[in-house]
Write a structure and sequence with these properties.
Layout: E1 5-7, H1 19-30, E2 34-38, E3 43-46, H2 47-63, E4 71-75, H3 80-92, E5 95-99, H4 105-115, E6 117-123, E7 125-126, E8 129-130, H5 131-138, E9 147-151, H6 154-161, H7 168-176, E10 183-189, E11 197-202, H8 203-216, E12 224-226, H9 234-245, E13 250-253, H10 260-269, E14 274-277, H11 279-286, E15 301-305, H12 311-320, E16 327-331, E17 338-341, H13 348-353, E18 357-358, E19 362-367, E20 380-387, E21 393-394, H14 398-404, E22 411-419, E23 425-430, E24 435-437, E25 440-442, H15 444-451, E26 457-467, E27 471-480, H16 488-495, E28 507-510, H17 524-535
Parallel strand pairs: 2-13, 4-5, 4-6, 5-10, 6-9, 12-13, 12-14, 14-15, 15-16, 27-28
Antiparallel strand pairs: 1-19, 2-3, 7-8, 10-11, 11-21, 16-17, 17-18, 19-20, 20-22, 22-23, 24-25, 26-27
Bound molecules: adenosine monophosphate.
Adenosine monophosphate is lined by residues 189, 305-309, 328, 330, 332-333, 337, 355, 413, 415, 427, 430, 436, 441.
Length: 543
Amino acid sequence: MALAHTSGPTDVPLLEETIGENLARAVATHGAREALVCRHQGVRLDYAQLGAAVERLARALIGAGLRAGDRLGIWSPSRAEWVLVQYATARAGVILVNVNPAYRTEELAYALRQSGCRMLIAPERFRTSDYRAMLEAVTDQLPGLERSVFLDTDDWTSLLDGAERVSPEELAERESGLRPDDPINIQYTSGTTGFPKGATLTHRNILNNGFFTGELCGYTPADRICVPVPFYHCFGMVMGNLGATTHGATIVVPDAAFDARAVLETVEAERCTSLYGVPTMFIAELADPEFGRFDLRALRTGIMAGAPCPVETMKEVIERMHMREVAICYGMTETSPVSTQTAAGDPIERRTSTVGRVHPHVEIRIVDPETGATVERGQRGEFCTRGYSVMRGYWNDPERTAEAIDADGFMHTGDLAVMDEAGYVNIVGRIKDMIIRGGENVYPREIEEFLHQHPDVMQAQVIGVPDPRYGEEIMAWIEPREGAELDAEDIRAFCRGRIAHFKIPRHVRLTREFPMTVTGKVQKFRMREISIAELGLTETETA
Ligand code: AMP
């Protein structure tokens, strides 16, 4: 038996340029082709217009006093300005900090403080989220935040006006000092110890990962990629935006936040050739009662990723959505993100029931989590990745970086996988204590620590339980303090407004005891079994 250790092809070389240089080439080659369509804003930009808008904003950022290496946060649902900010920060050498638009005060304050953001860009409000009020509530915790710029207000126009003070030569001068290996993006991912960690990525990391993901999808300038996944996550800003602009393709944004109907309408109206989504999104689109009225025949490909992909959903996407070349990607933010991907030419069975094979220029191995030795093909172990795609580290956190990336440069993903003889990989579980609810990662520890702040909570233990719609749902087992009156609604009300909605326990079970090992450790797998039986839930077969 061969060992579970492979490297991807290297025939197409890595891009050795900055994101700005790559965009400049796209603008020069594809000027009149459509680059960005944001349906909900009525925005349409061709490559020449996108290039000009990005240049103006990059000069404006320099005019606002941001230096190379400074941090700028963006806390916004998907909109055209997000894309402009992504490319303008890259041109100005400013590190973009992605803040999940679902973050609430606790999480926002932590991310901005930990990364040391000097500027924050956000809409004033979106649906029920009052971003201005939430920011004001935590401003005293953010001495380093010098300026907040609210979109659709004078803040934004006066920021842009500042471009007049900075000449194109000054911008060129700034860009000449940038290198592909410079950090350019910090993405916060849920943390094992109660706080999110800032995965720090370079131009080289994300530009190449977007490029090769697009290569495997066979993108050309004729492709129109529907991106309903959020920009704050690498699925949107790397596989979506960079995947498109490295190929002269079009980014099509159906709505500010996911809405199944808006996706179907957009695919039809914009004749999209590719559609992205976490499994939950495809499940919702297929379940739309009016699904049959949409003409989705322009679709050729797309990507399902971010959480275990149900085999049945993959089959339906191929048959009912015409996405005959659809790919499954597997990866994580810390690896830019993609490590494996199915290819259009793979046998259909492999394309629906595995996460594919190793990506170009990437090396993967599956190791025994106890000994670190590479296991054989067919055996399960921890999935590890090495190569250009591995992040620089967690921002200002050498300790946790050293826990994640070993001395040989392999990122330990915490995912359990099996590799077959032909190199195809299956994700079979996780050793990290993490829940994925509809594509959003949640570490139980983070919620447990938060729930312990409730005066009537004696002990809180959080688990993930299967859910047909979200893959997994959050469940909290709560032991109230002696004499305290607590119910599920009290727990949820305590969370609202302070932590993101997707971390709020859907199921709450009040209890007086937890299943324990003899050494007194809570047995989460037992809690899960008990809850599955009590709630009458079932598990789904996935890739
Ligand atoms: P993120 O950092 O948000 O991209 O989440 C990364 C995690 O999502 C991985 O470590 C996996 O646990 C999970 N994940 C991503 N893609 C897949 C997939 N195709 N199948 C199963 N799990 C996945």
